[in-house]
Design goal:
Keywords: Glycoprotein, Hydrolase, Protease, Signal. GO terms for molecular function: dipeptidyl-peptidase activity; serine-type exopeptidase activity. The chain is α/β, with parallel strands linked by helices and 487 residues long. It has two domains: 273 residues, Rossmann fold (3-Layer(aba) Sandwich); 188 residues, Up-down Bundle (Four Helix Bundle (Hemerythrin (Met), subunit A)), CATH 1.20.120.980. The strands form two sheets. The protein has an eight-stranded mixed sheet with strand order 1-2-4-3-5-6-9-10, sandwiched between helices. The chain has a two-stranded antiparallel sheet with strand order 7-8. The radius of gyration is 23 Å and the shape is globular. The two termini are 27 Å apart. Bound molecules: 2-acetamido-2-deoxy-beta-D-glucopyranose (NAG) (4 copies).
Length: 487
């Protein structure tokens, strides 16, 4: 106990002190890692199929105390695992104090962990991508690590961390494998929304709310979308292509829809990563990008720049126009997830997941949000998914498999949410029980709490991290009371 009081003191002083001056945005102080690979069954659930694939994982054991140090496990989500390593500084701020082993496994079908290389995304190969298979990968790898490092199952407890879909996975790991994971920090994990249990207008309404905090912004955004609609109605695709400096001019309604989606996505991303300092997570963005974008829009129009050009300037805060034009098809991919599938191969895998287990049926109506009407519903999702992946959507399955809103029999999970994050209303915002704790970060965007501490951090995220550390300590203390059990 005394050790832990000391630990808390140490931790808070180290968080408030020297480490605050780390410059996370340039990755200058991102700790080193070893890149390792492990063989995993392609299909954990069909015992007649013994094919395997190579899963990548990153490890740091420089602070690890094998006697009773915990294992900090990041539940890799939809992307290159190195990018999550670079953007999850909170774990590295606290790992040395906890003397933890840090492990980041990569999610199958993302980054380098492609079971069939570039043909992994063929209809007959993609079927091994699922939440269940991924969790089984993690459970198997964590068990192997416990054996390799000769750990006690109890005295070296495994704590799961994750942000966004990674947060969902962290929570699910605790539901499904409590024998392996002692507790989970699920940051910005919209578990209800992705189970299809939220209204379809929720997400973009909350994107709008973020921009509505900036004076004069939303009316200008509406005016700009109206100007786009007017041009499109008159068939003036030439004007739009010129004003938006498109590399490949649009010439029809389909092209125009893509332009709208690309534009809407700029708002989505800026709202999600509305961090208090410049960051390179889903793009290279300035501090408080929502405020920056709004001020620039207000400034531009005040200077007499026409509304469409001002709007294009706003988009260029997020999107590159290095070749002096925008390739909207390169920069935004339309898919089953209107909140964005990301880019490249990762977007293909996420598209498939959005068709199978993660329901992100969200749409805009121009009333509860500031965007043009872009409808999306279960029927459209079904048509798209059948056509693209040959899968029939099973809408109820996520709630059956992962409990829907009936989560109170789970224990030891922190659900943290930032109120600037457009996903926050999709997850638990109140305490469910003594050990299912909700942490609210008033000035936090998408999993700000998982990022490394920064001099510009608002007070609310410092308090949130403190509450999270308290819970983690509780889980570890609980574990240490129990005898050592080896595998
Ligand atoms: C992570 O950061 C390192 C620098 O520490 C950088 O070289 C690398 O490109 C980054 N990786 C990703 C995927 O962002
Ligand atoms: C912008 O373009 C540069 C140079 O082509 C590239 O290195 C960078 O990754 C691009 N950034 C984004 C956010 O696409
Ligand atoms: C907008 O104009 C204000 C007042 O001139 C200035 O302080 C601010 O930096 C400008 N912001 C942007 C993003 O252009
Ligand atoms: C949940 O309970 C913890 C104490 O266990 C408290 O600090 C926190 O504020 C509560 N969360 C909410 C959203 O009320």
């Amino acid at each position: 106990m005394i050790k832990y009081i000391l630990l808390v003191v140490l931790l808070t002083s180290s968080l408030e002190g020297l480490k605050l001056h780390k410059k996370r945005t340039n990755f200058e102080n991102v700790p080193k890692f070893k890149t390792l690979y492990t063989d995993q069954y392609l299909d954990h659930f069909n015992k007649r199929d013994d094919r395997t694939y190579k899963q990548r994982f990153l490890v740091n054991d420089e602070w690890f105390n094998p006697n009773d140090g915990p294992v900090f496990f990041y539940a890799g989500n939809e992307g290159d695992i190195e990018s999550f390593w670079n953007n999850t500084g909170f774990m590295f701020d606290i790992a040395p104090v906890f003397q933890a082993l840090v492990v980041f496994p990569e999610h199958r079908y993302y980054g380098e962990s492609l079971p069939f290389g570039d043909s992994s995304f063929d209809q007959d190969k993609i079927g091994f991508l699922s939440v269940e298979q991924t969790m089984a990968d993690y459970a198997v790898l964590l068990t192997k690590l416990q054996q390799d490092y000769n750990l006690c199952r109890k005295k070296n407890p495994i704590i799961a961390f994750g942000g966004s879909y990674g947060g969902i996975l962290a929570a699910y790991m605790r539901y499904k494998y409590p024998n392996i994971v002692r507790g989970a920090l699920a940051a910005s994990a919209p578990i209800y929304l992705t189970a299809g249990l939220a209204p379809s207008t929720l997400f973009f309404q909350d994107v709008t709310n973020d921009f509505d905090k900036e004076p004069g912004c939303v009316p200008l955004v509406r005016q700009a979308f109206d100007a786009m609609e007017n041009a499109a109605k008159q068939g003036d695709y030439k004007l739009l292509s010129e004003k938006f400096k498109l590399c490949e001019p649009i010439s029809d309604a389909a092209g125009y829809k893509h332009l709208l989606l690309w534009m809407r996505n700029a708002f989505t991303i800026m709202a999600m990563v509305d961090y208090p300092y410049p960051a390179s997570f889903l793009g290279d963005l300035p501090a408080w990008p929502v405020r920056f974008a709004c001020q620039q829009l207000v400034n531009d129009t005040a200077k007499g720049v026409d509304i469409l050009s001002s709007f294009k300037n706003l988009a260029s805060i997020l999107y590159n126009d290095t070749s002096k034009c925008f390739d909207i098809y390169e920069q935004f991919i339309e898919c089953a997830d209107p909140t964005s599938c990301g880019l490249g191969n990762d977007a293909k895998s996420w598209d498939y997941q959005a068709c199978t287990e993660l329901n992100t049926v969200q749409e805009t109506n121009g009333v509860s949000d500031m965007f043009p009407v872009i409808s999306y519903n279960e029927e459209l999702r079904e048509q798209y998914c059948l056509k693209t992946w040959g899968v029939k959507v099973r809408k109820e399955w996520p709630s059956i498999q992962f409990w829907g809103k009936h989560i109170k029999t789970a224990t030891n999970i922190v659900f943290s949410n930032g109120l600037l994050d457009p996903w926050h209303n999709g997850g638990p915002l109140t305490n469910v029980s003594d050990s299912l704790v909700a942490v609210i970060i008033e000035d936090g965007a998408h999993h700000l709490d998982l990022r490394g501490s920064d001099p510009n951090d608002p007070q609310s995220v410092k308090i949130a991290r403190y509450l999270e550390i308290e819970q983690i300590i509780k889980w570890i203390e609980e574990a240490r009371k129990e005898p050592c059990e080896k595998f």
